[in-house]
Write a structure and sequence with these properties.
The chain has 14 helices and 20 strands. By secondary structure, the protein is α/β, with parallel strands linked by helices. A 6-stranded parallel beta sheet has the order 3-19-15-16-17-18, with helices on both faces. It has a 6-stranded mixed beta sheet with strand order 6-5-4-9-12-13, sandwiched between helices.
Length: 431
């Protein structure tokens, strides 16, 4: 049996024995209608909310938060409809500010802003590129019950009509993206973001230093999510519009309305579209990220590794296809692999914590508990340093898997591992 899988901008052939039991696991196949209809329907029939026109009428400081360049959200497609709603409410352009929610990421060039927002927006409206490093641009509005100082972009705090936008999708430690993440980390100061993200650490536990509830699809009991929600509620956002994107980047659905109830609806839609059962596992899992740009660097590839790993039997093998044409994708990531000693790394996490440090730890943990083969452009020594084995071809990977397993007889194939998210039966909501 031959299966074609994406690798970078190309495809590779995975040749499996005809006698093998092969299961191809993918998200629900989505064929959405035209985006305009989905956007208009969501705005005209908001969830547990007045329409945006009614909410915004008479407001003088309307702020729209939009995602930065690291998040595909289709902002340029839905933003004109939000601005149309504001115009219908007689809100003049000068009363509208658009803020790019960079969180702890870098800022944008003018041409990148145009790509995100669409042409002509910068010339009509005030646009702010959030800078989490700029202390003077933030205002403290309190502290969460977990001790996170709430420092947010001044214009967001002073808004009298705050509108959140973004995309709902699985997130490997916040449970889901979208919703409250527009605020925290989106427009928060670096100190706030770091304090929130460090909530994933379990103090003093070198064997389990990462809170198990900080995981894909988990909201109930997830301290990072709950802290984000507490912080976001302080700013009392007025309205939310979030998209759900198909694997090829099209708008598959739109939720709008009350920032909490509409987001909850989006979460349940994402579970239905992209969640797969984590109950059945396989001796050999062959996973493609889905090609470029989902495998542009290892930091991106890790999302697919994270998903596929959950479906590998305890004595099984994972063959991961991730080109990594732009290398690791982080300056400090590889430094965490000076030793493959989990307890040593766990000791360092509290005092040297970064998101990439967390990614390095969980990568190492996976590599030390399963045989992971990787078809990649990364140098063999970098792959070996992470505890994995680089292969030159898919055929070599299948050959090594056969040696390790004795035979190729039970295979699971994930053509779109980056958006195929294993979910246990017990996984629940809790937004």
């Amino acid at each position: 049996m031959d299966i074609q899988l994406k690798y970078g901008r190309e495809k590779v052939c995975i040749r499996l024995p005809d006698s093998a039991r092969v299961r191809v696991v993918e998200p629900v196949r989505l064929d959405p209608p035209a985006a305009e209809g989905l956007i208009r329907k969501a705005l005209e029939h908001p969830i547990d909310s007045l329409r945006l026109e009614e909410i915004a009428r008479g407001k003088e400081r309307v702020v729209l938060i939009v995602s930065d360049k690291t998040r595909a959200t289709a902002t340029a497609e839905f933003l004109p409809f939000l601005l149309e709603s504001l115009a219908s409410a007689d809100v003049p352009d000068r009363n509208v500010t658009i803020i790019l929610a960079t969180g702890s990421h870098t800022g944008h060039l003018p041409e990148e802003v145009d790509q995100i927002l669409g042409p002509g927006i910068q010339s009509r409206f005030r646009v702010i590129d959030h800078d989490g490093e700029n202390a003077d641009a933030h205002v403290q509005v309190g502290t969460t019950s977990r001790g996170t100082p709430l420092l947010f972009q001044r214009e967001v705090v002073e808004s009298d009509c705050l509108v959140l936008t973004g995309v709902v999708g699985f997130h490997y430690f916040a449970g889901f993206g979208g919703g409250r993440k527009s605020i925290l980390p989106g427009v928060a100061q670096k100190e706030t973001i770091l304090a929130n993200h460090k909530l994933m650490l379990v103090e003093g536990n070198l064997d389990e230093p990462i809170c198990p509830a900080c995981a894909n699809g988990v909201l109930e009991g997830n301290p990072i999510h709950e802290d984000m929600m507490e912080g976001a509620r302080v700013l009392n956002p007025a309205f939310l519009l979030n998209t759900i994107l198909s694997p090829d980047g099209r708008i598959a659905d739109v939720v709008a309305g009350d920032p909490w109830r509409a987001y909850e609806s989006g979460v349940e839609k994402v579970r239905a579209f992209f969640g797969v059962s984590a109950e059945q596992k396989a001796k050999l899992v062959v996973a493609s990220c889905g090609g470029h740009p989902k495998d542009i660097n290892f930091i991106q590839v890790h999302k697919s590794l994270h998903h596929a790993f959950e479906l590998v039997a305890e004595d099984g093998v994972l063959l991961l296809l991730g080109e990594c044409a732009q290398g690791i994708g982080s300056k400090d990531f590889s430094a965490w692999f000076s030793t493959l000693d989990l307890r040593s790394v766990a000791r360092r996490l509290p005092r040297e914590f970064t998101i990439n440090a967390h990614t390095a730890y969980v990568t190492m943990r996976k590599a030390l508990s399963r045989r992971i083969l990787m078809l990649t452009a990364l140098p063999a020594d970098k792959v070996a340093a992470m505890g994995m084995t680089r292969v030159e071809s898919a055929a070599e990977g299948i050959g090594l898997a056969a040696e390790a397993l004795g035979a190729i007889d039970d295979v699971m194939v994930l053509p779109l591992a980056s958006v195929t998210v294993p979910q246990p039966k017990s996984c629940s909501g809790g937004t």
